[in-house]
């Protein structure tokens, strides 16, 4: 197991290097610069500012300098937020995204998994068709529609929950953003679990378990449920990474201090180090979540061996 983890870790290094390189090249190839939005300043002062951030050097030297800092875990200073490093910005915003994202994924797994399994057990009934229709609706409805609707209903009309802002540890401030992010994933997970359960329930080992006289609940929980989780794990790897890194729409609607809004403003203002830093963090999250998914395969399915 340890050998497999180390192998995956060293394999991920070239992938992250490629991601950082592409982000560096594309950002510097885009028109404009990090200080073009500043008020008109004297050329000497502009040159002094650019020299402070090493922007007066050749591009290849800037690239090597950035890689050397990245190898030490230093994402560099932010061009837009003066006196603040990218590490500090991400350290401030990432815990908010992790809290909202993991809460949303927990809600999606509980609700979506329950609906999917229930629809499969009641295959071709009105309940099954209704759940399929609701799942299609959830997949087709974007987050920028769901979030304002939830604010309108539960904050403006009913006054049950706050419309925005963020208070650490407050469940009332966490609920609406988490539900907004979770609803589309509820639909995806419900469809995945329904299809997987239908396939597993028609397998020979399930027919054998039924022939032995086991009850329906025993067949489901002791034999079928574990096998139905395999397709779901493949989906959860990138899904969890996407939720943890936050949603720009949800952060904008609810005023969350996550890294998504910093990424957007950094991209608009050509804050090279901030944008590349967020992309690298997202890449690391993808690698870690996919690794955890592979490890879960070995725990769920004994036929899988990690070599």
Question: What are the main properties of this structure?
Answer:
about 300 residues; globular; about 75% helix; mainly alpha; single chain; 12 helices
What would you note in describing this structure?
With 307 residues, the chain is mostly helical. The protein has a domain at 94-268: MetI-like fold (Orthogonal Bundle), CATH 1.10.3720.10. The protein is 75% helix and 0% strand. It has helices at residues 2-29, 43-52, 59-71, 86-121, 126-140, 143-157, 171-201, 204-211, 216-244, 248-254, 259-268, 272-300. The chain starts with a helix and ends in a 7-residue tail after the last helix. The model has no long low-confidence stretch (mean pLDDT 83).
SSE blueprint:
Elements: H1 2-29, H2 43-52, H3 59-71, H4 86-121, H5 126-140, H6 143-157, H7 171-201, H8 204-211, H9 216-244, H10 248-254, H11 259-268, H12 272-300
Helix pairs in contact: 1-12, 4-5, 4-7, 4-9, 4-12, 5-7, 6-7, 6-10, 7-9, 8-9, 9-12, 10-11, 11-12
Radius of gyration: 24 Å
Ranges where pLDDT stays below 50 over 5 or more residues in a row are none
Helix content: over 70%
CATH topology group of the domain at 94-268: MetI-like fold
Structure summary, number of beta strands = 0
Strand content: under 5%
What's the helix count?
Answer: 12
Structural class: mainly alpha
Give a brief rundown of this model.
The chain contains twelve helices and no strands.
